[in-house]
Amino acid sequence: MIVGIIGKGAIAGYVSHHIASSAHSLGAILLRQEFVAEHPSELHFGTVSDLPKDLDLVIDCAGHAALKSYGRDILRRGMDLITVSLGALADPDLWHELNEAASSGNSRLHLASGAIGALDCLQAARYGGLKEVTYLGRKPPLGWRGSPAESVLDLSSMTEGSAVHFSGSARQAAIAYPKNANVAAAVALAGVGFDKTRVKLVADAGISDNIHEIEAMGSFGRFSFQVRGKTLPDNPRSSALAAMSVVSKLEQLTMRIVI
């Protein structure tokens, strides 16, 4: 496949490295127009309309703002799009617009699982009596820098203990924490939805990894799941598993037998 990428961050770098060592080829990198002007390259493009027509797929590696800015036009052009910016879909207007754009372009928006697992179990359970889903996200205090947690806790002085700085629905979490709650959104989309999924976000001075936990129950039974995630070396705020989930989704699209 000829693949386009949105962004130049750590996840984009990981995906680009994989493409370079695979049977795929990198056909374009979509970036802000001012960056393209300052860093001209045959692979750099500033608008969706300028993207090469032979792209088979575009991968969003640049966050919520990029999905909101470029997603509709990419899908309308008939290009499939992979994204890990699932939290942006908490906005019902954006959800509707992307769905309409995909219908108009006969394209699909593929949601990568990001930094969490067990979504296949949630998806199966929702067709058989899934009733309650809770997501608990724990990070070291400094892992919450730049988020609303700073208005609740003195993160720099937390040297022991843990504290909840958010408790509410997955929709509220995704809107309030656009850089931190994509996992909560993934759990919501796979399970009982944004408004019924309960979320707690915790600053925990006793851990060094990012820890994601899911608990679910219903007529199917009950399950719990935990991921202790490492970050990418290039960016301590980017999940390694999130980058890997993008690569996994890309490869799934080319497989004849898919799990």
Can you give a write-up of this model?
With 259 residues, the chain is an alpha/beta fold. It folds into two domains: 2-111, NAD(P)-binding Rossmann-like Domain (Rossmann fold, 3-Layer(aba) Sandwich); 119-235, Dihydrodipicolinate Reductase, domain 2. It is 31% helix and 29% strand. The chain contains eight helices and 13 strands. It has helices at 10-20, 33-38, 64-76, 92-105, 119-125, 170-176, 182-190, 240-252; strands at residues 2-6, 25-30, 44-45, 57-60, 80-83, 109-111, 130-139, 162-169, 198-204, 210-218, 221-229, 231-232, 235-239. The strands form three sheets. It has a six-stranded parallel sheet with strand order 3-2-1-4-5-6, sandwiched between helices. It has a five-stranded mixed sheet with strand order 8-9-7-10-11. A two-stranded antiparallel ribbon has the order 12-13. Helix 6 (170-176) packs antiparallel against helix 7. The protein starts with a strand and ends in a 7-residue tail after the last helix. The model has no long low-confidence stretch (mean pLDDT 95).
